[in-house]
Amino acid sequence: MNRKIKLIWDFKGPAAEKTAQHHEKHLKEYIDMENLDVKITGHKKLSDMHSIAFMVVNESKMITVRDALKPHRGEVHETTSP
Fold first, then answer.
1. pLDDT tens per residue across span 47-62
2. I want to staple 4 with a disulfide (CB 3.0 to 4.6 A). Which of 17, 74, 77, 80 is the partner?
3. H/E/C letters for each residue in the chain?
4. Is the pLDDT of residue 79 over 80?
């Protein structure tokens, strides 16, 4: 089974939520430009002063994407099946 890795970019401060939303647009542009098979991107408000943008990639592509986009951190993406 090929694990999925969630690459995460943290944004802090009063404009964090809008910055994370905007960053997701750039992630989608990169996915299109590189023709990646990535289905999951997003942004999430964690608090008034902290938001994240993220994308989920196959572990086999993680190093290439990590080196190109410099995420702040990553974690194994757990999927839940019904």
1. 999 999 999 999 999 9
2. 77
3. CCCEEEEEEEEECCCHHHHHHHHHHHHHHHHHHHCCCCCEEEEEEEECCEEEEEEEEEHHHHHHHHHHHCCCEEEECCCCCC
4. no
Cα–Cα distance for residue pair 28/31, rounded to 1 Å = 5
CATH code where residue 65 lies: 3.30.70
pTM of the model: 0.91
Number of domains in the chain: 1
Residue 2: predicted pLDDT? 84
